[in-house]
Specification:
about 0% strand; 4 helices; mainly alpha
């Protein structure tokens, strides 16, 4: 949702043809939007699909290392929290 909100902020400035943010703030918003959408949406969705599809393709009953898969999920959550917390320190 944060990535979508950042996209709305960037698009609002482009659509209004007014400058609401300085150049540095605009670059930060755009970069954080892209980073959040790629690393916190695209990659987890593809990883989830592949976790489901690959065992079906090779005929396995279950995935090989389910605990490792769970750890990778929680590392994405922790990384996302760290990424989004950069707004709190003022340097995204």
């Amino acid at each position: 949702m944060l990535g979508g909100i950042l996209a709305l902020l960037v698009r609002t400035e482009l659509a209004a043809r007014r400058q609401y943010y300085s150049g540095t703030e605009y670059n930060r918003l755009f970069t954080m939007h892209a980073t959040i959408m790629i690393f916190l949406w695209v990659i987890p969705v593809l990883a989830g699909l592949l976790t489901y599809i690959v065992p079906l393709q090779i005929g396995a009953n279950d995935m090989a290392f389910p605990k490792l898969n769970a750890v990778s999920f929680w590392l994405i959550v922790i990384g996302g929290l760290l990424l989004c917390s950069s707004f709190l320190v003022g340097a995204p």
